[in-house]
Amino acid sequence: MGMAKIEANNLFKKEIKTMPKVVCPWNLITDFVTDAFVGYGIPRDEAEMCTDVLLESDKRGIESHGCNRFKPIYLDRIKAGIQSPTTNFDIIKETETTAVVDGHNGMGQVIGTKAMQMAIDKAKKYGMGMVVVRNSCHYGIAGYYTSMATEQGCIGMTGTNARPSVAPTFGTEGMFGTNPFTLGVPSDEAFDFNFDCATSITQNGKIEYYARIDEPVHPGTIINIDGTPVEGDAGVALKKIRQGTAALTTLGGIGEALGGYKGYGFAMFVEFLSSVLQDGAYGKDLDGKDEEGNIRPYHLGHFFIAIDTNHFLGEEICRKKTGDIIRKVRESRKAPGAERIYIAGEKEYEIWKEREPHGVPINESVQGEINAVRDELGLDYTFPWEDNYTPYPETKKITSHIER
């Protein structure tokens, strides 16, 4: 294994230990993933939604939630019978500005897209909208939904609970999920402000990714049940988390010295909004196991909030003022050795502009998964990592929700 550099416009540089990668054109991977979702029983229009959310992650360089999770998180769960390929978006209560939705364990990306659009539509009419969801599944990157809001001139917020893998401050047992709290604000820059991160230092998807590329656990991010830090092999650490003998730490890390209680508080707030308004599952009821240890649906909860800027002083003023603030921060004094100050969403935008003409990098492990899914479904595709590959036709323009 060697070190590889990911560059965005030769400005954003981050070194990661990686397996050999091959770049797959966007049109090819988009068509294949959509056809595979359809092959697993998802209606085509909903399959296209799922593909859009999945690949948006890779477009932003968030490889932990893109093609790396295509088979194990979505297809395998459908095959196991713990996630429904057809989505019943059931509105069980609705007012002018709010709604409560039951997703009946359908596709999280479909539920998330419909719920956020409902919140936006309510905000456009009444100024603000909020939709809460119960009985959903993994909905992909939360920043996709806040981008939906900012694209339409709204401030957006979303969060989700998840299987218990994060310990509270002064605790060592996984009691709640990585619980992202994600915020988006429209700007007049080439990208909108989009703050998308877990309330834990790292997330399960990142540990899964480290295990795939043979990168060790980062110090201070995982705690053993006896209170000692977990170090070394990410695959071993992942098994410990799944077994309940280790847990991720909240933002700020172990204890209170560096503010771990702050990440703990944010994680609890997301847990509340993902369960208390919709009478949804929480904590250890989200571990995907029944009393006998058999796998079952995860029953996740989400929330979506939209605030329409035109119900205040208008989208144009909001975008300009947001841009002014961004530029003032960007132009402020830099730390010694730092080349620039970034804004939330900026690195993702630059990665997209670098990847846009080329495609998505696919590591060797995921290449094998893609080949296996293709062969299982009998789909007529060849890929750049295969000797018989021929260039795929550019049938449509591929875009990203990260740019305005």
Q: Keywords for this structure?
A:
404 residues; alpha+beta; two-stranded antiparallel sheet; disordered N terminus
Care to describe what's here?
The chain has 404 residues and is of the alpha+beta class. It is built from 11 helices and 13 strands. The strands form 4 sheets. The chain has a 7-stranded mixed sheet with strand order 4-5-6-12-7-8-9. Strand 5, helix 4 and strand 6 form a beta-alpha-beta unit. The longest helix is centred in the N-terminal third of the chain and has 19 residues. It is globular. The chain starts with a strand and ends in a 27-residue tail after the last helix. The N terminus is likely disordered.
Topology summary:
Elements: E1 2-8, E2 12-18, E3 21-24, H1 26-39, H2 44-59, H3 70-80, E4 90-94, E5 98-102, H4 108-126, E6 128-136, H5 143-151, E7 154-160, E8 181-185, E9 193-195, H6 204-213, E10 222-224, H7 234-243, E11 246-248, H8 260-273, E12 300-308, H9 315-330, H10 346-355, E13 360-363, H11 364-377
